[in-house]
Design a protein that fits this description.
Helix content: 55-70%
Radius of gyration: 23 Å
Strand content: under 5%
CATH architecture of the largest domain: Orthogonal Bundle
Oligomer: single chain
Largest sheet: 3 strands, antiparallel
Distance between the termini: 62 Å
Number of helices: 14
Shape: globular
Structural class: mainly alpha
Order of helices and strands: HHHHHHHHEEEHHHHHH
């Protein structure tokens, strides 16, 4: 069964007859191939919009959805105190659905015409270099422990370095297979939106660590590079637990008990920021990340601490 169709029944049942048909059709046709997490976000945002519309006007019919309804919904999110980034996310979800309705002439007007994102200054969520050093120090200690968990400890250390060295999303890393790892590159990487990236290179020292992990520590059972103790592909939840465990130990192991925050996406942001700082080339960074050029601007901005440091040097 198509994963897109599996999440449609969670929409509110109080909708017009046309929407009861069009929402499943939109998820099956337009969103097919997107990650489960992206599908969940779209479902959540569209559910919120449908519930808002129903509370204002009664059951939502596509033909009665106009731009003023969309603007009122977004304004209401603002009144409720939601952050601009959250409101922009909801905007993206309803714009995608509204434009799909308009493009395929399921409605005779564009229900999201003229809507614009809130302009906000985005800063990358990078991992502080000192915190990163402490994180890897604990990861190395766990990897060296002579216990049954040694294989997972080594895997976790290698996984973290792979995330930082490649800049890949966690879904992209977890989908990698042994056949895709050639030399110092991952080949034919399945990326967001159903795209395929022909090759993603990493540093030789990290590639050597991956080879060591595959040769001596990896649990066999599937062709995934990163496996759990049963030999099947490691899950997102498994990665989160592993990284959080290392971060918690690193936070408590050093003087001051500084809280260390890590996540797969923070490793991706850290990779992108370092790459931009070393090259000052937004096109190169965009190509490396597999993102559009407009998303790279956040890596060109200085953090508050970087600005403070620069001011002190004047």
């Amino acid at each position: 069964m198509n994963k897109s169709l599996q999440i449609v029944p969670s929409f509110p049942s109080e909708m017009g007859a046309d929407m009861q048909v069009l929402l499943p059709k939109y998820f099956a046709e337009e969103l097919s191939g997107l990650s489960p997490l992206t599908l969940k976000v779209r479902r959540t945002d569209l559910t919120k919009f449908v519930q808002f519309y129903n509370s204002m006007y009664g059951n939502l019919n596509a033909k009665n959805w106009y731009p003023r309804d969309s603007r009122l919904f977004l304004d209401e999110l603002g009144r409720q105190g939601y952050a601009p980034s959250y409101r922009n996310r909801n905007l993206a979800s309803i714009k995608s659905f509204g434009r799909w309705l308009w493009e395929y002439r399921y409605v005779d007007h564009d229900p999201v015409k003229g809507l614009r994102e809130i302009q906000i200054e985005l800063q990358p969520k990078v991992i502080d270099e000192r915190q990163l050093h402490r994180f890897y120090k604990i990861a190395d200690r766990l990897a060296a422990q002579p216990t049954h968990a040694k294989s997972q400890g080594f895997r976790n250390a290698v996984l973290a370095q792979t995330l930082e060295a490649s800049g890949l999303r966690i879904e992209e890393v977890l989908s990698l297979t042994l056949e895709q790892f050639v030399g110092n590159r991952f080949l034919n990487v399945k990326a967001k939106g159903g795209k395929v990236r022909s090759a993603v290179s990493i540093k030789k020292e990290v590639a050597d660590l991956i080879r060591c992990y595959i040769r001596s520590y990896r649990t066999r059972g599937s062709n995934a590079i990163f496996t759990n103790r049963y030999g099947t592909r490691l899950s997102r939840n498994g990665v989160a637990q592993a990284l959080n465990k290392i971060a918690a130990l690193a936070s408590s192991a050093f003087a001051g008990g500084e809280m260390i925050k890590v996540s797969p996406h923070r490793f991706r942001h850290s990779h992108a920021k370092k790459l931009y700082d070393s090259t000052k080339d937004p096109v190169l960074v965009a190509r490396r990340l597999g993102n559009g050029i407009k998303y790279v601007s956040r890596y060109a901005t200085a953090s508050d601490s970087e600005i403070d440091s620069a001011i002190e040097k004047i």
